[in-house]
Amino acid sequence: MPQIVFEPFDSTRHPNPMRWIDDTQRQHHDRAPKLIPYSVCLVTVKGFTFMFHSVEQICVCLDYYNRKIHESSRLPVYTENLGGDHFECQRWFERLPQFLLEEKIRNAVVSTLEEAIVEYSKFPGAITGIDVKPYIETW
User: Fold this and answer.
1) Residue 41: inside a domain, yes or no?
2) ∠96-94-110 over CA atoms, to 5°?
3) Which of 65, 59, 61, 66 is nearest to 126 (CA)?
4) Which residues lie across from 40 on neighbouring strands?
5) Does this model's pTM top 0.90?
6) pLDDT > 90: percent of the chain
7) How far is Cα 40 from Cα 104, in angstroms, rounded to an integer?
């Protein structure tokens, strides 16, 4: 059964795997930790737990799971110097388990993420207001 949990931010327990998309809440927290409470949204579907630090991150992830067909994840190495090992070049969506893309499970993920957006929007600071791009354009 899908589960949505909100926890107070703890830097030792809540890394931000989508920091390239939105890291605004953590930056505000680092400057004034007691000014705005910082909660992290944990969404568990079929045994996998997503960790989100803003509503915008959930929206980008929802955009990814709303698509039935995904573009190639090959990086344009011939046009950019992306170098490094494989794990250094992986984008956030390439680290997700592939079984979540099966149609039945994907539909459960989409509905749970939509519910998480509604619930997480109620927390102060969860909506950072940044302009996010679709998942494939974020590299």
Assistant:
1) yes
2) 50
3) 59
4) 7
5) no
6) 47
7) 27
What span, in angstroms and rounded, lies between the C-alpha atoms of 43 and 61? 12
* Tokens 């070049």, located at residue: 89
Q: Locate 116 and state its tokens.
A: 């998480």
For residues 135 and 139, give the distance between their C-alpha atoms in angstroms, rounded to a whole number.
Answer: 8
Residue 52, both tokens = 């989100």
Contact 18, 53 (CB under 8 A): yes
Does residue 29 lie within any of the structural domains?
yes
**Tally of domains in the chain:** 1
In a domain, 136, yes or no: no
Per the listing, tokens 């830097």 go with 11
Residue 137 lies in a domain: no
User: Rounded CA gap, 134 and 21, in Å?
Assistant: 10
Structural domain boundaries enclosing 24: 3-131
The pair of three-digit structure tokens given for residue 49, joined into one six-digit string: 């737990």
